[in-house]
Amino acid sequence: MKYNNLGNTGLLVSELCFGTMTFGGEGMWEHIGKQKQNEADELIKISVDAGINFIDTANVYSFGQSETILGNSIKNLNLNRDELIIATKVRGSMGQEVNNQGLSRFHMFNSVEKSLKRLQLEYIDLLYVHGVDKITPIREIMRGLNDLVNSGKVRYIGVCNWPAWMVMKANGIARQEGWHEFKAMQYYYSLANRDVEDELIPLSQSEGLGFMPWSPLAGGFLTGKYSREIDKAGGRRDEFDFPPINKERAYDIVDIMREVAMSHDITIPEVALAWVISQNGITSTIIGAKNKKQLDSNISSTNIMLSNEQLDKLASVSTTEVKYPTWMVGFQNQNRIP
């Protein structure tokens, strides 16, 4: 297992981050996973034994169950807290109450207190804002996050699913005020969707932020189970078709992935993970697993070295139309690149 710097923090995190979205299985999350405590304990132990020191959860996963199960696993396995980097999130709705969601100071402070109780921890290593809250000003959000860090209940802050301009504006405000800035970004990235390459990954590299891809298997579509002939394969996408992808293009991608997998005697999901891990600017790729076999396969992807020819084939079949102004930047700078 390799370890990378989380942006410019000096904090080293494993190249794989174990995601716990499959823990619990309440509400919409049952389509993703239903792992209970004993199963979770086994998966966490395998991950930590393999060298993974970075574990990701969220308050909204199974409405708190994921955090509770993770907290129990840390205690059940007698894991060394000082060797773990625990990330959770705030933004989603946690109940029917009107203020039990969003990024208001009110909700963020309440949410962190409840997350700490569920996790049975004294502090959260990395707290992500889980999405955009259109009614709370960015300055208010950053002030609240700054005070959470100053309280000692949160060590670092990160952002998920915000447009690049909002991330830069937020960190600009924080920098101007001398507040704590975002140190990490968590975004959807896979061979089936490479949108983050236009602005978000360049932003993370320019500003020294860690970049953590979520759903590198495109919600299970890149497992090889699905094809033009098989659109129902017993996977999570049968009931929860998310995140959205261009399926016709994804079928072409899977065809090339299958060729690569056969040449290495590995699985198609391992190719998908190896590709994401190998991309420039990636800090730690978030994996999820329902059982030991899946987890072992995910972990083994860190040992796969794709050839330049294979990387070129995968890049070619997965390339999407470049959006403006990205194509104009490239066009105008043709003669400015030595």
What does this structure look like?
- The protein is α/β, with parallel strands linked by helices and 338 residues long.
- It has one domain: TIM Barrel.
- Helix content is 39%, strand content 14%.
- Helix 2 links the parallel strand 4 and strand 5.
- Helix 4 packs across helix 5 (164-177).
Write the layout of secondary structure elements.
Elements: E1 3-5, E2 12-14, E3 16-19, H1 37-49, E4 54-56, H2 65-76, E5 85-90, H3 105-119, E6 124-129, H4 138-150, E7 154-160, H5 164-177, E8 182-188, H6 200-207, E9 210-214, H7 247-264, H8 268-278, E10 285-287, H9 292-300, H10 308-318, H11 326-332
Run of helices and strands: EEEHEHEHEHEHEHEHHEHHH
CA-based gyration radius: 20 Å
Mean pLDDT: 96
Largest sheet: 8 strands, parallel
Instruction: Give the strand order, joined by hyphens, for the main sheet.
Output: 9-8-7-6-5-4-3-10
Task: State the fourth-level CATH superfamily.
Answer: NADP-dependent oxidoreductase domain
CATH architecture: Alpha-Beta Barrel
**How many DSSP H or I helices?**
11
Distance linking N and C termini = 36 Å
How many structural domains?
Answer: 1
CATH topology, which one?
A: TIM Barrel
Q: Poorly predicted ranges (pLDDT <50, ≥5 residues)?
A: none
Strand content: 5-15%
